[in-house]
Amino acid sequence: MRKPKIVIIGAGYGGLMTTVRLQKLIGVNEADIVLINKNDYHYETTWLHEASAGTLHHDKVRYDIRDVIDRSKVDFVQDTVVEINKEGKKVILEKGEVEYDYLVIALGGEPETFGIKGLKEYAFGITNVNSSRQLREHIEYQFATYNMEEEKNDNRLVLVVGGAGFTGIEFLGELTNRIPELCHEYDVDYHKVKIICVEAAPTVLPGFDPELVNYAVSQLERKGVEFLIGTAIKECTPDSIIVGKGEEEPREIKAGTVVWAAGVRGNSIIEKSGFEAMRGRVKVQPDLRVPGFDDVFIIGDSSLVINEEINRPYPPTAQIAMQQGEVVARNIAALIRNKTELETFTFDNKGTVCSLGEDDAIGVVFGKKITGAKASFMKKVVDNRSLYMIGGVGLVVKKGKFKLF
Amino acid sequence: MRKPKIVIIGAGYGGLMTTVRLQKLIGVNEADIVLINKNDYHYETTWLHEASAGTLHHDKVRYDIRDVIDRSKVDFVQDTVVEINKEGKKVILEKGEVEYDYLVIALGGEPETFGIKGLKEYAFGITNVNSSRQLREHIEYQFATYNMEEEKNDNRLVLVVGGAGFTGIEFLGELTNRIPELCHEYDVDYHKVKIICVEAAPTVLPGFDPELVNYAVSQLERKGVEFLIGTAIKECTPDSIIVGKGEEEPREIKAGTVVWAAGVRGNSIIEKSGFEAMRGRVKVQPDLRVPGFDDVFIIGDSSLVINEEINRPYPPTAQIAMQQGEVVARNIAALIRNKTELETFTFDNKGTVCSLGEDDAIGVVFGKKITGAKASFMKKVVDNRSLYMIGGVGLVVKKGKFKLF
């Protein structure tokens, strides 16, 4: 009897969690498991703001996939997905193709630029290891160049962050820690540096508790961040952004660095492969399968699950992706054992912590609001938890965040 | 009775040596000593190839001027020289002016680009702390950007060094050490990187012993450097250089980084101030004074001293600048004590060592040819010697180069 073949594409939070759970649940003789990923490493997307600011080395935010998978059970293929042929039940890769009986699409999201002119070309992203280290190096290069100029271009030291959502705020927190170091490293006067956050929504961190939002804003303002709220980026040029607020005349802000940290959409492979989607996200069934395709699961940033309480989709997070991965692993195990009853996914929100740099954060954990050092400590607990869930204690010891007192 | 005022402009090897010698030779009541420098730090020009390649942090190549001067005897002024009014006996600074009775011009050299189009705009220089860290960051940014590109631009990983003189060769040595680290840091395939050295002269390291030159070339070639000898850079563009060899058709070499390490000329302040000079260098009298100006000494890269043996000028080096500084200090002490007989400067060549990266070098020391680890060790001795000469044992301990076995 031919063994079913389970193919997981993407080794982010969702895909890797699916893989490590499946390799525990399923015997070698029950199924073949193939994990496909572009890189041979997994990276902690939720830590990229640190690598981007330069406060944490990018090698600390990634680890070798082969360190966490059981290679006697899982075949790892390093390749890039080009398209999914869902009718032919195969995945087209850059260097070949792979057939599947069950497919888990866990390709992660992509930045959503809302068609804003110039953003794709001129703004930096906090998207992956490559983009983060490029951003870090770009910022350092601006500082390194400043003292070389005969006519000092102060705009070189202006950093604009587009988006005051989770990523934007966490990146701002790291930046305010990093800028004094950069000033010291490159002999730049601290007062010459300007950090501006532009957010189109009427508030910072929409959806967060207003009291915590106020705390975050005042802490970041104290450290030098200027917030332009209710202000939209209309265009990005090689050395500036054009912003507009309501009926006001749009104006130009010159900046040496523009970072786009607003908005995630689903993976473009989803639409390319003909799945029905909204901004690249597929509204999955309660069992996380794609309507009409009983052999295809989608989890993580390219899946859309409605929060019934507020009748709006859950925002894409690492937490939800990992919980989905656990359910998918159990559902696939059930399917290959010919069980027809599949488990329904419900999101169990354990809380959210948004860091504001070293030693400061805001959050809601188990329904309680926390700020400051306590929240910052909880942030590290959260960060270590995802390591633990995927790689156990060994990975926490190797890559975990500990503060040495 | 009014005390004479000695003004030293420039705190490089020559200027700083003059200052520390003067502060020992002269009593507080004999003269006022003023040292003027653009930065509040001295940097080791001969170590900049390391800071530029990123093998040594730039803070290791500089130290605070106030750490080596005796502030009860020397007034330190941080300012930039604009011009010298030699008839009015004053130095015009950006923020003021200073009168002098005796002036020591030790402003250092400037890169000589021989009017080659685009070099000033697009090539990086190994000239000072600012230019070195900009070059280091530029190279890192090229590596960081490579993996971000959808269409990989391999030319981004081409590094061209213009000039196979001392600085060019030493920089190449460091680069060959640094490139594997960069490849690892930015996930770049080592084989994609290309290092090319272009030299217009018919040989590498002109003036060096041919046996040592052969050793250097074969060592660097073994580490991946391609030499284009007898080849002139005709033009530098934002992403390439145009080279020509003899009668051959000029050709373009695409490169992400072009470093100009060929040729030093005297400081442009010299010509601006109306001194008679050749490429910014003034042929000084045997007592190091400027002909016709008995109160003005010029030392270091802006001075020109003929090597009688070969009837050609000595190349500008740290060694000659420091020896000049010692003589100038004694001659000024003589002048303020109304002695008319001044000391004649003769260069005492203690040897030259050219490093080829970590653990390798070539050199002639006390007339003996050396290569490899021995030469590399001697290079560190030479480097520590200039620290010792200026700042004593304390400075060697603080900033010296030691290899820990």
From TrEMBL, chains A, B:
Domain FAD/NAD(P)-binding: 5-325
GO MF term set: NAD(P)H dehydrogenase (quinone) activity
GO biological process: aerobic electron transport chain
Domain of life from the UniProt record: Bacteria
Keyword terms: FAD, Flavoprotein, Oxidoreductase
Cofactor: FAD
Family listed: Belongs to the NADH dehydrogenase family.
Protein name: NADH dehydrogenase
Species of the source: Neobacillus vireti LMG 21834
